[in-house]
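Lab notebook, bench 4. We co-purified these components, and the gel suggests they stay together. Before we commit to crystallization screens, I want a quick structural picture of the whole thing.
Request: model the full complex, all chains together.
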Amino acid sequence: MKFKSHEEKQYIPRNKSRIMFLKFKKNKMAIIGLIIILILIFTGIFADFIAPHSYREQNLSLKNQSPSSDFLLGTDEFGRCIFSRIVYGARISLKVGILSTGISVLIGIIIGSMSAYYGGFLDQILVVLMDVMWAFPTILLSLLIVAIIGASLNSVIIAIALSYWVQYARLIRGQILSLKNELYIEVTRSLGANDSTILWKHLLPNAVIPVVVAATLGMGSAIVLEATLSFLGMGAQPPTPSWGSMLSNARTYLFLAPWLAIFPGIATIITVLGFNLLGDGLRDIMDIKMKE
Amino acid sequence: MTNYIIRRLIMMIPVFILCSMIIFLILHLVPGNPVDNLLRPGSPPEVRGRLIKEFGLDKPIYQQYIIWLTNVFKGNLGVSITEQRSVSELLLLKLPSTLVLGVVSFLISFILGVLLGAVSAIKQNTIVDYMGMILALLGVTVPTFWLGLMFMLIFSVNLGWFPISGYGDLKSLILPAFTLGLAGAGLIARVTRASMLEIAQKDYITIVRAKGISNSQVIIKHIFRNALIPIITLLGLRLGWIIGGAVTIEIVFNRPGLGRLLTDSLFRRDYPVIQGVLLLLIFTVMLGNLIADVLYAYADPRIRYN
Amino acid sequence: MKKLTIYLLLAALLIALTGTFSLASPEKELVFVVDPAGKGTATLNPLKINWGTSALYALYDNLIEVGLDGKYYPALASSWEMSEDTLTWIFYLKEGVKFHDGSEFNADIVKWFIEEMRKSPSDYMVQSIKSVTAEDHYTVTFHMEYPDPNLLYNLSSVFMKIPSKEAIEKYGDDFGIKYAVGTGPFMFDKWIMDDRVILKKNPDFKWGTELSENKGPAKIDRLVIREMAEEVTVFMELKSGGVDITEGVPDIYLEKIKEDKNIDVVEIPGSRLYYLAMNTQIEPYTDIKVRKAICLAINQEEIVEHVFMNVGKPAHTYLVDQLEESKVPEEYKISFNLDKAKELMAEAGWKDTDGDGILEKDGDKFVANLWIENTSVFRKVAEVVQEQLHKLGVDAKITQYDSITFSDKLKKGEQELLIRLYGWDNADILEWYFNSERMGYPNVAMWKDEKSDELMDKAMTKAATWEERVKYFTDYHEYLLAQFPWAPIYLPPVNFGIRKEVIMPPVINSKRLTGPPILDIDIE
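Here is the predicted assembly.
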C-alpha cells in the first residue's frame, strides 16, 4: 500500500509513450508474457524447421509411445510425434487467437461506437441486443454457431468472433460515452468537424487503449474456447494439429497414454498465460480500470 | 426497492421474448431434422413424412414459433421428440444434478477465492502474494475440461480416491465440483485482492487507522467488508457462467444434468428440449444479474434504486 | 440478511443432495453396463420405441425368440405353422403365462397387440398381416395380405415385444416412463434417466425358452442396467468392480482387461459393419474403375489391427457375416490389393504427372472430401483410410459432422466419400441403402441402377419362403458387390467384460445377454 512517486506523475503529459515503455520494462510479468508470445509466434512461423517430424504422417507401428529421445513428448494413437504436432499447433492457436479476436473487436468497434455516438433509438436497440447476447454463456453460443455452419477451423474462428464481440462493443460504448461530453470534443464540434471525423479522429483513438488491453486478454480466452470446442468435437478437422482436438482424442487414452493429454494441455496453458500476463501488465501500465 | 425489483422483472419479459425468438431462429437454421434420428432400416420411405407432420415440423417457421410461444406462456414447454417426455419433466429431472454441482462449486469458488485474494492483499508484494496470484492466474488460464482430465488422471486413475464418473453420492461430486470451483476461485481471488488494495488506499481508511484501531480490526471490519461489494456482484454475474461451465464438466465426468441434456439434444435436434434448456439458462443469467444488483444495493447503503 | 442467504444456500444444497441419494444394495445384484456407443433409453414401452435397449429384453417377451445361430425358437408361442400358400400362419401360445400385474397372456392379447402395432412407429412390421383371429384361448391365426417370409424375423425383434394390455390402458402415457409391465423374467422397479434402470426378479416366471438352461425365475434378485457415456469410465468401473458386466469393452483397453485376472472377456458376433461409400452420381466415382480402385486401396486388415487392436474381423461384403446372404463366392469379396488399384486408376486415366504423389487427370488433382461423424472411432478409422488413399494417390480431406447434420448433408447428395457404420442383422438392409427411392439418405452412395432395383424388388416382395428370400437377396448382394459403390471395412464383435464373481452359462445362445441368457447368469 505504497504511494506512487511524484516524479513519475509529472512526466506523463510530456512523453507518454516513453513513460509507458519505462513502466513496461519494470513490469516483469508483462515481459514474461511478451516473451512467451514471441516464442509462440516464432514457433508458428518456423514450425517447418523446428518440428523434427511431420504432423500428419502416420507410423502405426509406433503408436502410443511414451516420451523418448526419438519422440520428445511421445507419440499419439497413429504414431505421430506429439512434439511436432504441438509445434504446428502453435500456428493454429495463433490463427484462432488473432483472427477471431480481430473480427470480434471490429464488430465491437462498429456496433459499440454507433450505439454510443448516435444514441437515441438506435442505441436502445443495440443495447438490448448486447444484453441478449450477454445473457448467453459464450460456450453455448459458439457451440450453436458451429452447429449451424459446420465444424471446421474457420467456423470456430467465426463462432468465437460472434460470441465475444459484445464485450468489446460494451467497452467501446462506455469509453465513447465518457469521452463524448468532454470539453475538447465540444470544441472540435463547434469548430465544424462532422460526425465521422469526430468519431474516427477523436473518439476512437482515445478509446483504443482499453480495447487493446481487452483484446490481449481476449486472445487467451479465444484460444481456450477453441480448445473447448475442439474437445467437444466441434472444432478443427483432422489431421489439423489443433491442441484442442489433440486433447479430445487423448481423453479415450487417458489411462493408457496420459502424455497425450498432458502436453497439449500444458502448451495451451503456457500460451494463454502469455496473453494473460501481457494483458494484465498492459492494464496496470496504462492504469485502466476494467471489470473482470 | 420492491418497486425496483418488480420493474426489473417486468423488463425481463421483452428481453426474454427476443431471446426466445433468436434461439428459435438459430435452431431452425441448424441443418438436420430430428425425425431422422427416429428412422431405422426396414421402415418404408413414407414414414419420414408422416413423422414430420406428427411433430408439426412441416409448418412454416413463424407458425411453429407462435404455437410454441403461446404454449410457453401457458406453461407448456412442449414434448421432447426423441425422449417421449414433456420438456418440463426432463428439466425437473436434470436440474438437481446441475444445481448441486453449481452450488457446491460456487461455494468452493467463493471460499477459496476470497481467502486467497485476502491473504494476497494483506501480504502484498511478498512471496505469499506472488504465489497466490500465480495460482489465481492459473485458475483463470487452465481450460476447465483439461483440469478435469488431470484431476481424473491423478485422483481417480492413479490414486483411486474418487470414482471416475457417476452421480448420486458425495464422492462422485468432489472432483467435478472442485474442477469447476477452482476456475472460478482464480477470478474471485483476483477481484478480492484488487478491491481490497483499492479500498486500503482510500482516505477514510487512513482516518480509521489514525484513530489507532488495530491493524487486524481495520482489515476485517473496514477493508474486507467494503471489498465484498464487487465480489458479490461478480458472484451474481457468474450464475450463468457456472451453468455454461457445467456443460463441459458434465461431459468430462459423465454426469447427467442440464449441460449434458443440452448437448445431447443439440446433437439430436430435439428442438423443444434445446429451447427449454436455453430459456431456463437465460432466465438464470438474468436472475443472477438482478440478484447481483440488489445485493449490491443492500451491501452499499449509498446506492438506492428508485 | 447475510446469514439468511447462507442458510438458503445450505437448504438448497441439502434438498438437492437428498434427491440424489445413493442406493442400498440388496441380496444378489448384477450391474450391467450398456455399450456407450448405443443410444440411451427413451421409453420402456415397446409400442413407442424407436430403438431397442437392454432393459426391454429382461422386461418383455416375444412370440418368437431368435438364437445366436439365426434360427427361430418358441417363446410365448410354443409352436407355429404356415399354410401351403404361405398366406395363413397359426400360432399356438404357451399356457399359464402372466404379466407382472397378474393379467393373463392369451390369444386376445395377441390380437390386441397386432392392432396396437399398427399405431406404433414400427407399424410396417405388421403391414403384411391382414387380420388376426383368436381361434380359442391359446390359438391365433394371422391372415396375410401377401407372403412375408420376414414375418418370423419381425415377430422376434425388440419392436414386437408384448406389453400388458391392462397396464397400458390403466397408465396411459405414464406407461414406459413410470411403469413398465411385461411377461419377462424381471419386473420394473425404478428408472433414473440417463443413468440406470433398476429391475427386480419376477418370482412367477417359469416360461423360459430353449435358449436358456434355466426356465424358471432368474437366479439374481436385482438387475441394474447402467448407461455410461464414456469408454474410459466403463473401463475404470469394470476394473474397480463397480460394475459386473459391461457390453462393448473398449477395444483400446482390451489388452489391459485381458491381463486382469478378475475379468473375463466373452466375445459374440456383432451385427455392425463399417463401410466407406462413394457418391456414384458424381465424377470421378461414376467410373466403376475408380470405384473399384478405391475399394481395393482400403486395407481392412491394417485397420482391424491398428485401430481395433485385432478385435473383430475385416469386412469383405456389405452384410454382417452370420447372415446367409453374406456367403458369396470369393470373386465377389472386396479385398485389399494396392497394385491392382493403381493399375485400375491408370486405366481410368488418373496418373501422377507432377510427382507429388497425388494423381491427376486433365490437369485436375484427385482430391476427395471424406465425411465422417464426429466420434473418436470414426476419426481414427478415417485418419487411417486417409493415409491408405494417399498411398493410392488420392488426397482425402476429412470433415466431421454430428450425426444429424450428417444425414441432412447426405440428403442434399453433395457427398463424395464417407465412412459410416450400420447395425442391422437382416439382409433387407441392402434395400435401405441401395433403393433408388432413398437417394441421398439412407442411400448414401446415391446408387441408382435399374437392374439393381429389379433385383431388390424381387428380394423384398417376390419371395414366398425364407429359402427363396435368401436366394434372391444373395443375387442382389452379389450384383451390388460387383458394382463397388461401397468399400466394406470392419465387422466389430460384441465384447462383454465380465467380472469373475459372475457365473456365466457355458454357452451363450443369444445376442442379448439381458435376453434369455440372463436366466442362467448367477453371482457369487
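Residues 272-491 of chain C form a domain with the Dipeptide-binding Protein; domain 3 fold (CATH 3.10.105.10). Worth comparing against the SEC data before the next meeting. The two ends of chain C are 56 Å apart (CA to CA).
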